[in-house]
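Subject: sequence -> structure tokens, single chain

Hey, anyone have a minute? Need the predicted structure for the following. Not urgent.
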Amino acid sequence: MANIDVMYGKRYLDVTVDDDNLQMVIESKHKIETEFVSVEAQCKTIVSALQNPILSPPLNQLTKDVKNVLIISSDNTRPVPSKLTLPLILAEFARPIETYNVTILIATGLHREMTEAEIIERFGEKLFKQHKIINHNAKDKNNLDCYGELILNGEPTGNTLYLNKLIKENELVIAEGFIEPHFFAGFSGGRKSVMPGVAGAETIMNNHNAKNINNPNATIANLQNNPIHLQALEACRLSGLDFILNVALNKEKQVIAAFAGHYNDAHIAGCEFVKEEMTVPALAADIVITSNNGYPLDRNVYQLVKGMDVADKVTKQDGIIIIAGECSDGVGHGDFNDVILGASTIEDLYVKASIAETVLDQWQILIFAKILMKHKVILVTDKLSTDVVEDLFMEHATTLNEALAKAYEILGSDASVNIIPEGPVVIPKL
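Reply:
Had a minute. Here:
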């Protein structure tokens, strides 16, 4: 018998699988090689990246003759270690920090705004008191600048670029983020700080339309000919983003690598590192048990679609995905919940999510519907009721062992099982 821990919120859930059923535990290389990293070692990695940027002058040069600096940072659905990274970024400035006007802009995209308590938890009391920290509001057109239509390879995309006004109002713009596989943008980090991070709602929804989401190149760990990535990259170029710091994290959310400098070249270097570390050869199984890499990525059902999508890659047709997600924030945005509840069947949900006119959260719903059409999904959570989970076209369980027993009842006691403890940070390759 094998007893495996799977990430859930800020803790772990265990599941017991018979050796005859367990086919694979799919884990990335860095989980084994760098499971625990000291704070000192993490800081050394970050500082080294900042002082040796890729195709960019270092910050002590970029900040010599400026006063107003904007730093774009991720919201609390991303585990960016801002308490560690931001002080190290500020320490690289050419002059004492008191001589600058520093604004931290939270790249909420279309997520809800962070509360004051969440901002303090994320950035720390000191940064909260020293600097302006502002939530981006994608729906507030009064706080957006228009950059014109996005053009790719000489062809109009039909997408008008709107970005937060603070970008033009500051002399230097820096972005911090982290890199992990992303289920339709290829990888997180880099250009995503700008779009969708601080873009207007109209721009984001056009970028995430059904045509782009259904493009076969819009998939995990792929940037080549990926329309969602390419639009975001062009948006980043037009924004004039001056410098980025992106990190790669291990299972304990500790920094194992850092990449700083040019918004594209530094990001590409980080993506190559992540792809090498996190690509794992795999076989498909009847049942796949996974997570969404714990807190903060498993805060709601909306985010859990990412973990389901990775599991889908190694689940046999008509197999079962078991996903552990705490869902401390509930289902997700109102539109995500409302569109699903407004569908009578999974097929109806797919049709509603495939409409040409993009509505909020349509992209996540479309991927969710495609997964549900191929696999039964059992959600393991103690924060949502059975009725709520079933209304979302899934089955409910409160423990992984309960979910596995349900899966065996459906597929038989000899069904093969894969386990992906870290969920969407792994790139399984059949």
